[in-house]
C-alpha cells in the first residue's frame, strides 16, 4: 500500500504559492481518486501520490517550482495522470532492466577497484566516494 500524502500542507501559502497550489491539486485528486476513471497504466491513487511526493521530495527549490508549474498546468484529472505517467517513464524506468523490474538499488563503497577505474556518473561530485550498485 502506498503512503498517503502528508497533511497539513508542507508548503507555505505566501512563500511557496505555486508548490502550495500544486499540492492542493494532488490532495484533491487523492481525496476523490475512487470516482476518477483511470487513464494510464498507473492507478489514479499512485499517480497523485507520485506527483505529490515529487513536490515534497524535490532536491531543490528550482526543481520543485518546475514540477509545481507542470502540475498547475494540468486542467483535469486525466492530464494529472498523464503527467505522472510521463515522470514515471523518465524517473522510474531507469530502475528497470530489459526483462524485469530490478527494485531498489543499494549503493556501497567499492574499495576493491582503484579509484581511476571506477565509474563516475555525469552528475557525481568530484569529492564524493566511488560506489558500486548492488541489486
Shape: globular
Head-to-tail CA distance between termini: 22 Å
**Percent helix:** 40-55%
Question: Treating each run of at least 4 consecutive H or I residues as one helix, how many helices?
Answer: 4
**How much beta, percentage-wise?**
5-15%
Mean pLDDT: 77
User: Widest sheet: strand order?
Assistant: 1-2
Largest beta-sheet characterization: 2 strands, antiparallel
Rounded to an integer in angstroms, the radius of gyration calculated over CA atoms is: 18 Å
Helix and strand string, N-terminal first?
A: HHHHEE
Describe the 3D structure.
With 135 residues, the protein is mostly helical. It has 2 domains: 17-95, no CATH class; 104-135, no CATH class. It contains 4 helices and 2 strands. It has helices at residues 17-31, 44-56, 61-73, 77-92, and strands at 106-109, 131-134. The chain has a two-stranded antiparallel sheet with strand order 1-2. Helix 1 packs antiparallel against helix 2, helix 1 crosses helix 3 (61-73) and helix 2 (44-56) crosses helix 4 (77-92). The longest helix has 16 residues, at 77-92. It is globular, with a radius of gyration of 18 Å. The two termini are 22 Å apart. Mean pLDDT is 77; it is low at 103-135.
Amino acid at each position: 500500500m502506498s503512503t498517503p500524502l502528508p497533511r497539513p500542507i508542507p508548503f507555505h501559502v505566501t512563500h511557496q504559492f505555486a508548490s502550495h497550489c500544486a499540492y492542493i491539486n494532488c490532495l484533491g485528486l487523492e481525496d476523490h481518486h475512487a470516482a476518477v476513471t483511470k487513464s494510464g497504466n498507473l492507478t489514479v491513487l499512485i499517480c497523485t501520490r507520485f506527483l505529490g511526493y515529487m513536490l515534497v521530495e524535490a532536491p531543490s527549490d528550482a526543481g520543485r517550482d518546475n514540477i509545481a508549474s507542470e502540475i498547475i498546468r494540468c486542467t483535469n484529472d486525466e492530464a494529472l495522470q498523464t503527467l505522472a505517467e510521463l515522470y514515471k517513464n523518465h524517473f522510474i524506468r531507469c530502475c528497470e532492466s530489459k526483462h524485469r523490474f530490478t527494485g531498489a538499488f543499494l549503493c556501497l563503497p567499492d574499495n576493491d577497484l582503484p579509484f581511476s577505474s571506477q565509474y563516475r556518473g555525469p552528475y557525481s561530485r568530484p569529492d564524493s566516494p566511488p560506489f558500486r550498485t548492488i541489486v
